[in-house]
Design brief:
Translation Initiation Factor IF3; two-stranded antiparallel sheet
């Protein structure tokens, strides 16, 4: 599911805007990260991808990916059984 110019609310009730949404819930590793990479390739520099995943491995996968890439992990939090991430595309 894709949404443009939408927003998500984090656990601190802050509203965070994003350019595209990836629903990767119920996908097993490595699919959440692979699909996120595909979506990031379609975004312009500075745009934000909101990812929802249920695979517990995604918690570390997205943090590692951001540290090894030009992308910035803007948000990483758990809400129930869902892991929520905001990735800002780098240059």
């Amino acid at each position: 599911m894709n949404s443009e110019n939408s927003s998500a609310t984090n656990n601190n009730n802050l509203t965070l805007s994003y350019d595209q949404h990836l629903d990767a819930r119920n996908l097993s590793c490595p699919l959440p990260l692979l699909k996120a990479k595909q979506h990031l390739n379609k975004l312009g520099a500075g745009q934000v991808l909101y990812i929802q995943a249920t695979d517990p491995g995604s918690w570390d996968d997205f943090a590692s990916y951001a540290s090894l890439s030009t992308h910035q992990l803007v948000m990483r939090e758990k809400s129930g059984n869902t892991f929520n991430f905001l990735l800002r595309k780098g240059e």
